[in-house]
Each structure stands twice: as C-alpha cells, then as structure tokens.
Design goal:
The complex is a heterodimer of chains A (169) and B (236).
Chain A lengths: L1 E6 L7 H7 L4 E4 L5 H8 L4 E4 L1 H7 L6 H6 L5 E2 L13 H12 L3 H8 L1 H6 L17 E6 L5 H4 L6 E6 L2 E2 L1
Parallel strand pairs in A: 1-2, 2-3, 3-4
Antiparallel strand pairs in A: 5-6, 6-7
Helix pairs in contact in A: 5-6
Chain B lengths: L1 E11 L19 E10 L2 E7 L10 E4 L3 E5 L1 E3 L11 H8 L4 H6 L4 H9 L3 H17 L2 E7 L6 H17 L3 E9 L10 H18 L5 E6 L6 H8 L1
Parallel strand pairs in B: 1-4, 1-5, 6-7, 7-8, 8-9
Antiparallel strand pairs in B: 1-2, 2-3
The chains are: A alpha/beta (169), B alpha/beta (236).
Chain lengths: 169, 236
C-alpha cells in the first residue's frame, strides 16, 4: 500500500523525510515545517497537504502554505473532517480560510482544492479539472461577481447546484 | 443521457489531461473560459467551449448558467468521516481551558472515538457516516479520502474500512480508503507500544490487504504517538 501520512502537526520529528523515503503520495498537516523538510519535499513526488479547518478549530498555527508554495512546491488543501479536531467537512470554508489565514490567492486555493487534491488521493486521471473524459462532477455557483468572491464571502452558501458523476446531489 | 450547461459566466480549471498537479508559481494560474458551455454525458465530461462556438447539440437537459461560475467539485484528500457519536464534550472542555494534549492525557481524543466506534454496529456506523457524506456532497465535494483509525482493534478497523468502501459503492462520490491503524496507542498497549506496532503490522495490515479494503496506509508520526522508527516499520 502506498503511504499517505500524518506528520508535523505539533512537532517536526523527521516524519517528512521518513514518508518521502517510502515514496508517500502525500504528507499531511505540516503546521510545523523545517527548511530541511522543504528541501526533502523538493526532491520528491510527494504532495504537501494543509488542513486549515483543523488549525481554526484547535487554535494551533496554520500550515505555512505561502512558504511552501514560494519554495516552488505544490500544495493541496483538505478538511481533516473528524469528530475531535475538525468537526466540519466544508471545503468552501477550507478554501476561504486558506486565503484569509494562509495568504493563498484565490487561484492558488482553488488549484490546491481541486487538481492538487486529486493528486493527493491518486485520482488525477479522473478528477480535479474540467477535462474531456474526466468525471462529470461540477459545482454550479449562484450568481456571483467573480470567482474571487467565493473565498471573500466566507461562510455564505454560494452553491446553486452540485453534480457528482453526472447525478445532481 | 446528455446534460448541457450554457451561458456559464466563467468555467474554471480547464486543463489538458497531462497536467496532474501544479507547483510553486504555476499555482497562481487558474485557466478559465469565459461565456462558456459544458456538455456532460452520463458520468463523464464530453466537451466544452465558448458560447460563440456552441455546436448544435441534442441534450436531454439544458441548464442555463447565466451569471454563474462552474468549477470541478472539490477533492477532499484527507478525512476521517466514518466515526460514531461526537466529541462535543471535549469541545466544551477546551472552551473551559483544557488543551488538546491535556484532553488526550485524560484518555480523550482518539481513544474516546475508538471506544464509541467499537460499540457501534456496522449498519449504524454506515448510517451516521452517510449523513455526513451527503452533507459534504451538497457542499461541493465530489471525491473524498476516508481513513480508518478509530478502531484500534483488527475487527473495528475492518468495520470502518468496510463502511468507507460501502459509502463509495452507494453514492456517486469517488471514495479512496486509507488504513490508519497506527493512529493512537490503545490503553491495553500503553506500556508496550512496540507490541501494538507489531499487532498493526503483522495482524491488522495483512487482513486489510487480504480483504482489499484500503488504497493507502497512514500513521500519526508525532511526539507521544508514533516515532520515525515506527513509521519505517509500518511503511517497509
């Protein structure tokens, strides 16, 4: 089985390197990340994944997404939906919080939550972009001025319809 | 069945199949088409383009997206949505001043969820988890990764992964599953973490693989949980 690991939530103890050594698909959390971790990731195919709703709920530091992207790395965003540290599965909130607290641009946050998210779960061939032959899975928003409005108006429900694999849900 | 979306104000994240991720400065680029159409056939995207070049298409449904933006559904690559009950009490404890670590030290956090999960039937666990999954689909999630890790016994871990798999078979959302046996050390092993690691690697993992229940394997590599050496042992 391919690894996808929880590392560096509270302490950097070498979990990033250990995961990369085993060709992990992703390393998740990274609220604490060292320069050495960043250089290890630069020589890998491993996707760093940030979970800003967890930082929000626990009042712990946010993953330094700006530093990760500025180092030339990719970044994915996910919810960490779980009963203890993140009782929320709202990706719209994750995208907004990444912009507000991690200083990602709307373009970066949308890329992180779609195409890079698909990579982090091994489904790039079928999900993550509008591409002929990929899954008919799309969000149709309400009338909005621009896509930057989606993270800007955080907490508003701006979704009109969701189609997943061709089915309206 | 064909569904045609017309007059889309802006269609986001239009890519060729070769792009599987974007890194660094590329992340600032979000390729889009303005005033676009999108044609879906059954489960796949058949075609798209700009309204001025809309061909004559016979569609079963036409959705007018005037003023609206269309984008691919979210890919949520890290969740633990298969769980039992909730931990509202810990939430209140934290408001009243306890830290996450202090709650963990009092036997809360993951061990609390594990106890509830072990006592919950597979059917009930499926029902509780399906409610959450339906909610996030309506919030735009079209693909989701689901981890085990609240079982901490072989039987309960297998139960979680079976529920996660069944969710993927029941709903249109794409589900990927991850075995997170090494999430926390259960109290029976509190003085014998190596014993628990051996149990995860030699007992749980082969059964998960035998039943083909997980796509990925995960470990909580963190002070007080699992070390780098434990990580190497599991991933080797």
């Amino acid at each position: 089985m391919i690894p996808k690991t929880h590392v560096n939530q509270f302490h950097a103890i070498g979990g990033v390197k250990a995961s990369v050594d085993h060709q992990a698909l992703s390393v998740d959390h990274l609220e604490v990340i060292t320069d050495e971790d960043i250089s290890v990731l630069k020589n890998s195919e491993t996707m760093p994944v940030a979970l800003p709703s967890c930082s929000y709920f626990l009042s712990i530091p946010y993953t330094p997404g700006r530093k990760i992207i500025d180092a030339g790395l990719p970044l994915a965003l996910a919810t960490d939906y779980n009963p203890g540290s993140t009782p929320s599965g709202n990706m719209n909130f994750v995208v907004a919080t990444a912009c507000i607290k991690m200083k990602l641009t709307p373009e970066e946050a949308i890329n992180a939550a779609t195409i890079n998210g698909a990579y982090a779960m091994g489904i790039s061939e079928t999900h993550g972009s509008i591409t002929k032959g990929k899954s008919a899975s799309v969000i149709i928003t309400k009338e909005v001025p621009s896509y930057g409005y989606l993270p800007y108006a955080f907490g508003s429900n701006l979704i009109d319809m969701v189609i997943v694999a061709g089915e309206v849900v | 069945m064909k569904t045609l979306l017309t007059n889309i104000k802006e269609l986001l994240q239009v890519r060729d199949i070769a792009t599987n991720k974007v890194s660094g400065a590329e992340m600032k680029e979000l390729p889009t088409l303005k005033n676009a159409w999108l044609l879906l056939e059954n489960e796949i995207i058949l075609d798209f383009g700009e309204m001025e070049n809309l061909p004559n298409i016979e569609a079963n449904n036409i959705i007018d997206c005037t003023g609206k933006i269309v984008l691919p559904t979210w890919c949520d690559s890290h969740t633990h949505i298969v769980y039992a009950g909730n931990r509202e009490q810990e939430f209140v404890d934290r408001i009243n001043g306890l830290s996450y670590q202090e709650i963990a030290d009092n036997g809360g956090v993951i061990l609390n969820s594990a106890k509830k999960l072990q006592q919950t039937s597979e059917e009930d666990l499926f029902t509780q988890s399906a409610t959450r999954l339906m909610e996030v689909m309506k919030l735009g999630t079209g693909a989701i990764e689901i981890k085990s890790g609240y079982g901490l016994t072989t039987e309960a871990e297998l139960k979680m992964l079976r529920v996660a798999k069944k969710l993927g078979e029941t709903f249109p959302v794409k589900v990927k599953t991850t075995f997170l046996g090494a999430h926390a050390v259960p109290s029976e092993f509190k003085d014998d973490k190596q014993g628990f690691m051996d149990y995860v690697c030699n007992e749980m993992l082969p059964k998960v693989a035998e039943e083909n229940l997980a796509d990925y394997v995960d470990i909580f590599c963190e002070k007080g949980y699992f070390t780098v050496e434990d990580t190497h042992q599991l991933l080797s």
